[in-house]
Amino acid sequence: MSVLKCRDCGTLYPEAMITSCSECYGPVDTCIEDIDRSVKSKIESRYPSMWRYLEFLPVNNTRAVNLNDGWTPLLRSNKLGKIGIKDLYLKFEGTNPTQSYEDRSVSISINKAIEFNSTAIGCASTHYIADSVAAHAARTGLKSYIFVPDNTPIEIIYPLLSYGAQVLKVYKQEGDIDCQCHGNDPATCTLVTRMAEKPELSLPIVDLDLRTYFNSGYKTLSYEIAEQLGWRSPDNIVIPEGSGSLTYNMYSGFKELYESGLIEDLPRFFIVQSSGCAPIVDALIHRKEIPTPLRNPVTLCENLRVGDPADGLYALRAIKHGGYGIAIEDKEGIEYAELIAKKEGISPDYSGGLAVAGLVRLCEDGKISPTESTVVVLPASGIKNRDYYRSDPDLKVPRISSNIADLQLYLETERTKLARTPIFEKPGEASVPPAFLRT
Amino acid sequence: MLRSIKQSNESDHIRWFREKRVMTIREVAVRFFGVISSETGHKEIKICTDAKNIRELVVEICDKYNSLKKKLLSSEPSALNKHVRCYVNGMDIRLIREYETRLMDGDKILFLVSFQGG
User: How many helices (H) and strands (E) would you count in chain B?
Assistant: First the structure.
């Protein structure tokens, strides 16, 4: 693996830290050398992590940063299947080292940073990427610099500090670019943009300077799904989407497997966006080639809050092969995230709930047939939604005294309630607990 | 004034336009970022222009840097390459009036290749 290729015009480049084609300014991707079906047995003999797909990954040595990223469970849904979908699987990314799918991409980026002799790594993020960069950098001994907006609360900063990351708050000043990508914070966006022109700083940004390699991490989700299904592709994949990168790169991953003869079909891609931030779905509905940026997008799903989805046009191309897109209210996503936790025993973040809510709607609209096999990507663990729980004014925890009669009364009431509750309850249909339990 | 010029001879007509052009000339700072600056050879230039909006400015820049023309413009007339973002005083033109965004004296224009991802 030593060649990079422009996604648009196909110009080839030697391996380097480049992200844009100098001929057409299109994005540059890594491309794999000829791989045939014989690679299957090699892959299957390796340790279960995303590094088992070594032939598909843009790494030159085996000095991989290893936190056992990837090889997350693909769980057949038992109770959500009662929504009416026969063959439903949940790809739960919450078992990654920092509980999100970003571990895959960050792991590859940091590995490449080491190959390029970097001694430090940076990122502009307050959520999934930040946690992952701090953890992976700590594992490798690289110094990590996390640039966050000036108003970032200490609850978000503390976990980063615990990994030994250097967190820098970036304050606004006149002349900042009013950028709607990367967390929509003009100051941090402007800083990392300016950093791109200063290679002498030797501080590559994982999802900008190393973007080309970063994307390969998303492809490992496709490799895993195919292998976990017995080297076949599902009929449909449902993805909660923000920037469009996950959809496009998962599509590329399946395409690589298809071209290598490892799978016989390609899946259809369906994206779900929050209705408060749905520029890709909007472009799909209005038949636009490129999504129009959205100013000040609003959604509780932090990983989906991207007003200017840079890979939006490529996600649209992936969807056009029989897929579709839909926008769902955050409230519905939250309800479904809680439902998945209650019924399946895995707690996804709200974007995962949004994806399942989108799947239900897509089935109701006839876009997905309930008889087809469908995989829903749940990008992270519900633990990432800690901010919302803290601010929920309706969150009530029942109180009891040490008197055993109190506990008995509580348990009796609960058991009576459980006996009346059907196994599957759609969100919003849950019975209201007795008043004394809500105080 | 216009009426009188229409009635006057050709040299007066041209002079009127010249005077008008002088009055509407603006000085703007144009910053080329990253891979774009390698085409222009400059990271920042100051241009005295009579371009009224971004569309006219882009055409003027492409006339000045011929090698940039093929890359900065898309196949659509006077439209930017889909990977190029243009900001006027920090604001993305797609969130203002796109190519019709008016230019004012002292404006700061930035051209950069979009970030892939987020």
Answer: 5, 5
